[in-house]
Design goal:
The structure holds three protein chains of three kinds. In chain A, 56% of the residues lie in helices and 12% in strands. By secondary structure, chain A is an alpha/beta fold. The two termini of chain A are 18 Å apart. By secondary structure, chain B is an all-alpha fold. Among the domains of chain B are: 84 residues; 39 residues. The radius of gyration of chain B is 26 Å and the shape is extended. Classes of the chains: A alpha/beta, B mainly alpha, C mainly alpha. Chains in contact: A-B, A-C, B-C.
Chain lengths: 280, 205, 209
Amino acid sequence: MIKENAVDFWDKVMNLDRRWVYLSIAIVVIIPTVIPFQVPVATTPEVKKVFNFINRMEAGDYFYLGIDYDPSALAELDPMAYAILNHAFSKDLKVVVGCLSQFGVAMAETRLAELSEKYDKKSGIDYCFLGYRPYPAIVILTMGVDFRVTFPLDYYGVPLDSLPVMQGIKNLMNVKGVVDITAGNVADFWITYGNGRFGFPVALGVTGVMSADYYQYLQSGQIFGLISGIKGAAEYEELSGFETTGLASIPYQTLTHAIILIFIVMSNIGYFVTRGRKKR
Amino acid sequence: MKKQIPIYFVLISGIVMLIQYFVPSEESEWLFTYANDWVIVVGIFALALGIWSLLRTEFKKLKNPKEAFYAGTLLFGYFIMVFTGLKREWLEAGHLHMDLFNNILIPIQATIFALLAFYVASAAYRAFRARTALATILLLTAFIIMLRLIPLGPISEVNQTAVGWILAVPNMAAKRAITIGVGLGAIATCIKIILGIERTYMGHD
Amino acid sequence: MTTAEILWNTLAAILTLCVFSFLIKDNPLYKFTERLVAGVAAGYWTMLIYHTNFTDKVILTMQNRQLAYIIPILLGLAMWTRFSKNYSWISRYPIAFYIGISTGVSIPVYMYTSVFKQISATMVPFDLTYAGINNIIVVIAVLCALFYFFFSKEHTGTFGVISKIGIYTLMIGFGAGFGMTVMGRVALLVQRVIFLKDYFIALKNYFVA
């Protein structure tokens, strides 16, 4: 009787309606909003390298920040952009911000407006926001030679030549490096057409979906650092102390991962139990 | 005229840009910069073409009572963004155009993609079964990677090391083989395009 | 939060819930948001392209008498002949221009980035240290995975064993990719949950205050 009930149970597990899975995820993801808790985040060398790159620069040093993501990847990448910009502005670094994704422009503008007010930074003096151009690979190639050819004016319509921040900065070879935060193949373009053609240092902040695809470039030195998804963002927040939703997301991630892993284990036990019965 | 000249166009511009890479001179750099910048200018017109095409389709749909409401919704969204963005400075933070972007586009697009969390959980539950040796390896690797987000005391430390090793050694090797393959494939395709063997980009007569 | 911020956030929260309603089944609320976002995105893009690209790269270049830019402008205008049955062939010229330039610049950089750099990074010293052993594993795994993609020879005998190791390596790569994907997808959901939580807290505080 007990054995039959067990078999029935595993049959049900194997044929569970997908909506039960949805409901479980929905319940689990709400738990940390009701019962908040913290989860420690271990930092990885690839994120530390990006942090050190920003941290070791001195006031007045330049770097290029690419905000190349859409709202669809905002959850993972916006915390990285926020922490890096905070970190850079707090150290008085000069930032050249560009967008190779059309919707990245609005998100970059929102963040720049917020943080420039916080740190009393002025567009054209402390940072330059280039805006957007189509065809990322081609734009990277032209920025490698001269910013002013592709972007005669900045996002606000001011000629680049008249901006104090751009005096003495001709192209991407004049900045200490590029940190590109992206959710698409723009990352490949920075490696291929940026580092590949001109040799300037590139670090990437990418979504979790993409991150496993960039370790070969990390090992070959074509990128010097890699921030992977929301965990990478949380690591950067932990290192820099500038928090938005990166570290706050980790408890939700922990519980959701736990329920997904339980589902995987249950489904495999069910598979072996029912397969054994079918064989008999 | 209709097909041959564009093919010669590709051949000449492709070869010139290829040779340019090996000629480090001011003239060569000038050619490289402006040829690429011209492509961007052409691209701006191409993007406008996409928008025009979308609007044409939606205006046609307005005539069909079944599709009129949703076509109207799209056009409403389109024109409200156009009217609120008529001046360049209205594209800056704090203006209505940006508020609409932040409170309509961001929540909808972000939530549409958030639905994938449910689907990925459902897919993991249904498809992640150790049916064969290959499936077992896939399952175990994903399991170890996913486990790193769960604090398990001393096990977590071992797991972090294992994750680091998986990503930096076997995963890296697999992705490197794919990168080399893709790179060789891309080069072969580029050569075929320049030589006029691959012409699908030209469409049909 | 100000009243305006509360109203904007209410709109965002309603739209978020409309999209989540798709989990139960496809419905008019979801379809409405889907069409609305397409329109808003296209409208945003139109004005962005007009103000920051068309103005800067077309109008300004003509105003500054940079006459060389007439060529790409004419090529760009030629794209619009696609709508004409008789003259759509003219649009092949700008396409050919773009394709020619981009393929020409791509060959050397792809060769360098995806082939030379990757091969040279694989040729690293072997020894019996932890790093050295990992290097041996990388060389074997890369070679086996490359052999797996070689379909001109039947995968039997020694070659079959090598390609088998190759496919196992690839499976580890795909498994790692899936593990990271779960984190990515969950992050998207978590961000929306955190947004809703913050919104409801702000709403409560607004009315209590």
